[in-house]
């Protein structure tokens, strides 16, 4: 039996572009005003952005009209968090929201991306202790040097590509190379000290030979995602797998920042969590991003696979206790 609650939209992200050095090395991002407002249920009146650029400073020029805050949410914002979260796929639709939320919570983040320029364009410049960017590609094992994972405590993997041939397949970015080979390389490279890896997958992966899933799987996307899931499950690493429904409410590519900044779950803030690959429906990218971050520290999610949808109604926002209740309820369904 699925349970439902709500999610809070993420505030503005920055733009600012720099030139980065080429190939595997850490990219230093210089200090900028931190996103240190506590994560709460907020409603904003947005001031018109400057014609020069959008930056993190927009976050502190927001006028708070209403705000309700709980102690669970405040603890997530603590600048003393000992977590260091390594995000793979951090410039994709869900990944952008995950990284923005981690920064907003003052959680140290590490990114592995093919084009580091996107990181500063999306997230602004930060001290590298808060945000360190590595140029690399999980399809290339040599890019996954142990030094990349130094100090990392948790991992969120939300990389992927389109189910059908598209421009995103350019450069051999196919489901087989990304969802299977890339994930396998990542799992093999992770140190055993990692406390949790959260993987974003898809509903329907266990039914890729059945209609209507077989249509979506014409080019193997569900099959390769399932192969990746199985490899992670058998790796011995502590994992949580979030199988998302059809993604909505956010950017459909990582190239449209204006869409990202307008991302909102609207009235679809309620969250359905289930197990057994039974859910069929849609889910807000904001909901998926929040589920990944919450799963990092909720003990009962370790070794579990969940399907997640979002529907009209209120829900958990960033309240950890409500997310615990959702995940636990799914175990009984």
UniProtKB/TrEMBL annotation:
Segment forming the signal sequence: none
PANTHER family: FLAVIN REDUCTASE-RELATED, NAD(P)-BINDING ROSSMANN-FOLD SUPERFAMILY PROTEIN
Superkingdom per UniProt: Eukaryota
Domain NAD(P)-binding, chain residue ranges per copy: 89-297
SUPFAM superfamilies hit by this protein: NAD(P)-binding Rossmann-fold domains (SSF51735)
InterPro entries, per database record: NAD(P)-bd_dom, NAD(P)-bd_dom_sf
Protein name: NAD(P)-binding Rossmann-fold superfamily protein
